[in-house]
Amino acid sequence: MKIGMIVELLKKPLFEGIAHAAKIGAQGIQLNVKHKEGEIDLSNCTDAELAELKAVCDKNGLEISAICGELKGSFQIEPQCWDRVKLMEKVFDSAAKLGVKVVTTHIGCIPECPADPIYATMVASVGKAARYAESKGCYFAIETGPELAGVLKRFIEDVNCPALKINLDPANLRGVACEDPVYAVVTLAKYIVHTHAKDSVNLYVGSPAKFYGMPNPDGTPREISARASGFKEVPLGQGMVPWHAYLAALKASGYDGYLTIERECGEDQAKDMAEAVRFLREQLKCLA
User: Fold this and answer.
1) Ordered domains of the chain (ranges, CATH)
2) Which portions of the chain are predicted below pLDDT 70?
């Protein structure tokens, strides 16, 4: 397995962040569609901009492991879902030009019951985006978090497109859904094409759907009587993710892709991410 990081979270200008990622030991980077410095928009950019970005990554010896396709709009609500699909198609176009195989995103909380009125909308819209990804030689990887592994597995099977895969985030699973990441790997193994290396603590058990939010078919917020799950992100190795068992499960499943460090908070995210590189190196040594 290889170590990557979400370059935007280093809080530096894009090209400076790419160089810093290489300096602290990353082998690859995940790019957000839009860098916060406003330097690039992978849903609306020129071939020249893509070529320059690829050249900077190559110069620093870094592979682009994935693009994080968080965009406005929803896969859950008509007609917004079709606008979201069109935006995703533009990201898949950029990914293909960059030679990037994986585009990740949250698709919204999948209902546990397939008879829920937004379930069919999600199957249709996510399926259309996944089929477009397939036409570009890419994977559309759903990020784990709002739902249990079994619910996500059934959804992927219902969409029935070979390009629909998973970006497994163990912190979201453990902290919000209270799902054992090892069990999730075993359940979802054949769909995992990318992972996030993030850690968390569950403060109290609650509703993931309440935490992430779930709409009604008309777009109004759904009333969920349960309290939201209590979740706190912490530096890698300081939370509830059982790293040794989790990485061993990934290895046993045949996964040999990226462990992409994601540190979304903290007083010094760049420092935490550098320490996360060291932590993962030690963990991977133990697996050898």
Assistant:
1) 2-287 (3.20.20.150)
2) none
